[in-house]
Each structure stands twice: as structure tokens, then as C-alpha cells.
Amino acid sequence: MKQLKKGFLSYGIALILCTIVAIVRYLTRNDIMSLTVFKSKILGDMTGEQGVYSLWPISHFILYVCLGYLSPSFWWLWFILGVGWELFEYTCGILVRTMQSNESTASLGKKAEAILMPQYGEQWVSGCQSDILFNLSGLVLGLLISKCSSKQISSSSNVKITYYRDDSSN
């Protein structure tokens, strides 16, 4: 249960940080997280995306490294939640695009787009296949770190210390 609590605490911290970024983004109309960190034609081709990656997918990777390290027994839950969140974001993206294309809801769609703001050019926040890859790779790295650190701890705890008393002075 400790691991599960640590995992949900990690998600809670991430949610608070995302909320702060969203508020700042809404107030300033500037998303510091959308700065391009790297480009990858290979990853873009593999996922059918543009291959331009900001701090957002890096934050996914870091969160999932923490989840894999702090809560390795629940890796399957974190993976399912990550995929579920991306499906939710994808559905929201479709909903906003649909609202924008309909005359009666176009103004509401524009307001929703202003809140979500463009992340990569014209593409605003919506679920990405690459985010799932960042989640998965972070989770695997976190699990590996957890496994290596637990082996180190268990091997060092197997050290046996024996004390001998010198009775020759009697």
C-alpha cells in the first residue's frame, strides 16, 4: 500500500504542477512548456506526428520514471492511467475541433482552443501516441532503477558482522 500511496502522491504533485502551468498559460497566453526541446524524424514517423517535442513529453517521461521507481508493483496501473489520459485528451481534441467546425458552437470551440492553446504550431493539446511512448520508456527506466537499487540494498543487507571478544587478557 505504501507504493500505491507514493504513486498517487506523484500523480497529485504532477496534477498540481500542471494546474499551475495551465493557470499561468491562461493568464499570460504563454506556455513555457511548449518550448521545443528536440526534434526526431524517426519518432515522428513512427507515431505519425510532426516529430517536434516540447517540455510536455519530457514531463511525462520524468513522472513515469518516478512512478516506476517509487511504485514498481503497480506499473500496470500507471500504464493504464497514462493510456487512459491520452485517450481523454484525444477525445477532447476531437470535441473542440467538432465544435469549431459547427456554426452554432464555433465561438465556444474558439474559447476552448484559447484555453488549450497551441502546443506545436496549430496543434493544441490533444492526446499523442508519442506521449504514450514517453510514459512507457519512463516507466521502464524507473522500474530498472528500482530493481537495481533494491538489489544493491538487499546485497548490502546480507553482510554479516561477527564480533569476537578477546579472552586472552584473563
Structure description:
The chain is mainly alpha-helical and 170 residues long. The protein is 69% helix and 7% strand. The protein has six helices and four strands. It has a two-stranded antiparallel sheet. A hairpin with a 2-residue loop joins strand 3 (118-120) and strand 4. Helix 4 (75-101) packs across helix 5 (106-116). The mean pLDDT is 83.
Topology:
Blueprint: H1 2-28, E1 36-39, H2 41-47, E2 52-54, H3 55-70, H4 75-101, H5 106-116, E3 118-120, E4 123-124, H6 129-157
Antiparallel strand pairs: 1-2, 3-4
List keywords for this structure.
elongated, 170 residues, 4 strands, two-stranded antiparallel sheet, mainly alpha, two-stranded antiparallel ribbon, 69% helix
Give a short summary of the structure.
With 170 residues, the protein is mostly helical. 69% of the residues lie in helices and 7% in strands.
The tally of beta strands, per DSSP, is 4
The strand order across the widest sheet is 1-2
Shape: elongated
What structural class do the secondary elements suggest?
Answer: mainly alpha
Write down the overall mean pLDDT.
83
* Main pleated-sheet profile: 2 strands, antiparallel
Taken as a percent bin, the fraction of beta residues is 5-15%
**Low-pLDDT runs:** none
Radius of gyration: 23 Å
Distance between the termini: 54 Å
